[in-house]
Amino acid sequence: MKSHILTPPVAQPGAAPSQAATGRTLNWGVVATGRIVAKVLGDLQALEDANVCAVSSRDVVKARAFADEHGIERAYGSYQELLADAQLDAVYIATPHGQHFEIAMAALAAGKHVVCEKSLTINAAEARTLVNFAGERSLFLMEALWARFTPAFARALAIIESGELGEISWVQADLGFLAQYDPAWRLFDPKAGGGALLDLAVYPLTWAVGALGFPDSVQAVAQLNADGVDTQTAINLGYAAGGHAQLMVTLTGNAPQQARVVGSAGWLATNTPLHNASQLIVHPTDGPARVEEFEAVGENYGYEFREATRCIQQGLTASPTMPWEHSVKTMELFDTIRASVGVRYPNDLLTH
C-alpha cells in the first residue's frame, strides 16, 4: 500500500540532516523568543548555509537579551521592524497560532520566504489565503511540522509502502500532558488559538495521514473549559475503503504519546513521544518482531530546515514533503472538528 505523503529527502534510517551547504547562504530572521525558538534555533544555526542574523519580540529588551544569548546580531522590538530588514531572505515564525496569519502575510508582502510553526493558521480560510498569496508572490511557504521530516517517521512510511504490514486498516495515536490552568497561557487563550486540538492533534494526525491519507468522514467529542477551548478531544476518522483512525489529544493528563499502525500482515508502533520517536517496534505476522533505533541529531529540527533551505535555494515555493494542500486540508479537518464540538476563535469572525 502506498503512503499518502511523500517520503522526506532524508529517508534513510538514522540518516542525519546534512549540515553542509547545498547552495547560497540564507539570512534568517526569527519572530518570537519563546521556548520553542530556544529549542529550534541551534539546529537551524548548525546548517552551514543558514545565517540567523535577526530576532524580534514585542519587548526589545527581551529580544536583545535573546539575541546576545544565541549569538544573533540584530534585535527588534516588533515583527514589522524585523520584516523591514532588507538583508533577510527568510523568516521563521513561532508566535502563538492566532498571530500566524497576520505575521506570515506581512512577511510574504515584504518579500520574505516563510517557515511558520504549526498549526499554520487558525482556520482553513486563513490557510487558503496565505498559500494563494505565497503563490502569487512566488515565495516559499512551509508549515513547520517537523515530525514529518524525522528519520523514524520516514522509515515508518517506507515500511508501510513496502507492503510488509499488508493493507493498512487501523491507526491509533495519542498525545497529551497535564497542563495546569493559567488564563494567561496561550494554551488556554482563545485569541491565541488555545486548546489541545490546534496545539497537539497535528502530530497524531500525521500518522493517520501517512498511513491512510485524509479521511472521508470525521467524528469528534471534546471537553471544553470555561474559556471555550478544548482541554481534551477524541477524534474518529473514517475511510471509504474501510480504514479507521482513532486519535486522542489532551491537556488533562500525561498520555502514552505513541502511535500504532495496523495492517493485514502486521503492525508497527512508536515509543514515546510519537512526534520524535527514537524507536519503531515492528511486528510482522509471519516473522520475528524487531526494534529499529534512531538517534536524535540536536533536537531533530534540522531535518525540516534542511528541506526548507534546499527548496528556497532551488526556487521552489512549496516543499514536496509538507505541501500546501496538506496544510489546507488539515485546517479544513480541524474546522470541521471545532464546529462539531463548539470551539470558536475570534479569528473565525474575520474575513480574509
UniProtKB/TrEMBL annotation:
Q: Where is this region: Disordered?
A: 1-20
- Superkingdom field: Bacteria
Q: Which residues form the GFO/IDH/MocA-like oxidoreductase domain?
A: 153-268
Gene3D superfamilies in the record, alphabetically?
Dihydrodipicolinate Reductase, domain 2, NAD(P)-binding Rossmann-like Domain
- The transmembrane residues are none
Can you give the residue ranges of the Gfo/Idh/MocA-like oxidoreductase N-terminal domain?
26-142
Q: Does the keyword Ribosomal protein apply?
A: no
Q: What InterPro entries is this protein classified in? A: Gfo/Idh/MocA-like_OxRdtase_N (IPR000683), Gfo/Idh/MocA_domain (IPR050984), GFO_IDH_MocA-like_dom (IPR055170), NAD(P)-bd_dom_sf (IPR036291)
- Keywords (A to Z) from UniProt: NAD, Oxidoreductase
| Family the entry assigns | Belongs to the Gfo/Idh/MocA family.
Protein name, as recorded: Oxidoreductase
Origin organism of this chain? Answer: Glutamicibacter ardleyensis
Tell me the organism's taxonomic lineage: Bacteria, Bacillati, Actinomycetota, Actinomycetes, Micrococcales
